[in-house]
Amino acid sequence: MNVKLGRGAEFQYSTGRLLLAGGASGPAPLLNPRKTAMLDALLLARIQFAFTVSFHFIFPAFSIGLASYLMVLEALWLKTGNGVYANLYRYWLKIFALAFGMGVVSGIVMSYQFGTNWSVFSDKAGPVIGPLMAYEVLTAFFLEAGFLGVMLFGINKVGLRLHFVATCMVALGTFISAFWILSVNSWMQTPTGFEIGANGQFLPGPSWWAIVFNPSFPYRLVHTVIAAYLTTAFVVGAVGAWHLLKDKTNPGARKMFSMAMWMAAIVAPIQIFAGDLHGLNTLEHQPAKVMAMEGHYDSHPEGAPLILFGIPNSAEKRVDYALEIPKASSLILKHDLNAPLAGLDTIPEDQHPPVGVVFWSFRIMVALGFAMLGLGLWSLAARYRKRFYDWPLLHRAAIAMGPSGFVAVIAGWVTTEVGRQPFTVYGLLRTAESAAPLEAPAVAASLVAFIVVYFAVFGAGTFYILKLMAKPPQPHETADPSGGKPIRAAGITPAVAVEGRAS
């Protein structure tokens, strides 16, 4: 393959030689048009993937948690006969359908980029990640697609218990989808169980289990799924708080706010603990990422400080205006105040991740995690003081924290993915070597198209979801006074149904 350079000159990839006008040729050790021409294209391809994956993950982060929340609501409805749970189920089901649909559509777009912008990566890593992606479709996607229709439209046709099974299968499908996608991503972070073929491809080794359950996968799976549950909990809590400010007697608003705050109070500390374990695993397998997260340009042989805030200065290899706690980083990462910690000075500079981005995205994620914990503890204090449903300041704080889960998960993924740079497969395949030989204008054109379409289509969908959330849950359902079981879930009031039976 040759690249035209202008004025009759070409660069020949196969030989690495510069072909001049008139047939003359010569070595081109300093002229690599693929690298030169692709610098801008590579940056645009990375921006495009970052944009689409960030936009996409907003919806799965919500739908994974919301599917489980719907499962819990329907289970409580079937067990107690309390129509409030049925009202909330019907209320959030419409929102789930929209979020799920937008998540599927935005995810399909991402997969095409593997064959366009990142075709070299697909060629080299395809034998390993291809089957895992196929398993996600064959198990999770088919399971979700098969039962979603029953979940959305079958409540009057298949019976309540069978409908509950469909809800459980959709919730299970969202978890299985996260399982396979996170296994793929974790293998790229901590690759194991592979062999390098003669053509440079990553080939599966004798055991697929070593690929699927790679060293970082269990930690990433737990941390990400809990993050999805917390994201949903804070959205539900914000909606409940919004309606409590308008009418603190609304039973649906009271119930959803209470359930969400219990989730925040119980699960937020678990998430902080899971995040700590994930960080220790990252220190073992991707030390450069942790060095960037901590802002440790230099090694600390007698205990490393915890830098709370500062401005990373990669040119001077220091953190300017650092506010730090002496030796606290060693205590957190090694559980020893005087434990030595290596810095980026022990790693070749061409393997350093972008410290500024990783440093700040990590702090945003951690700060929001502790803010979630703080709101959960505040809600416990409100319960204790009997002011849980009539403390406007708490409700306004819950509304302000509504988007916090989305911001936290995006910040977490920025930390994970940017911290892996400059590699796509950590330590083995560089990002610059993974991109397709495309021209920058072609990548730029598709990036602009994605931005326009995404904000138009998904912006409209998000606006409609917010419009649905702005309406309070309506009390259409109550328990059947004759049998203590719910009459139905179609929105016809039990009073009408009972009168119909009597007639």
TrEMBL record:
Q: Which GO terms describe its biological process?
A: aerobic electron transport chain
Query: What is the superkingdom listed in this entry's lineage?
Result: Bacteria
Q: Where in the cell is it found?
A: Cell inner membrane; Cell membrane
How is the protein disposed in the membrane?
Multi-pass membrane protein
Which positions, given as ranges, span the membrane? 47-70, 91-112, 132-155, 162-182, 221-245, 257-274, 360-381, 393-414, 443-466
Which GO molecular function entries does the Swiss-Prot or TrEMBL record give?
electron transfer activity; heme binding; metal ion binding; oxidoreductase activity, acting on diphenols and related substances as donors, oxygen as acceptor
Looking up Pfam families in the UniProt record yields: Cyt_bd_oxida_I
Keywords attached to this Swiss-Prot or TrEMBL record, sorted alphabetically, are: Cell membrane, Electron transport, Heme, Iron, Membrane, Metal-binding, Transmembrane, Transmembrane helix, Transport
GO cellular-component terms in the record?
cytochrome complex; plasma membrane
Task: State the family named in the UniProt similarity comment for this chain.
Answer: Belongs to the cytochrome ubiquinol oxidase subunit 1 family.
Listed name of the protein: Cytochrome bd-I ubiquinol oxidase subunit 1 apoprotein
Give the lineage: Bacteria, Pseudomonadati, Pseudomonadota, Alphaproteobacteria, Hyphomicrobiales
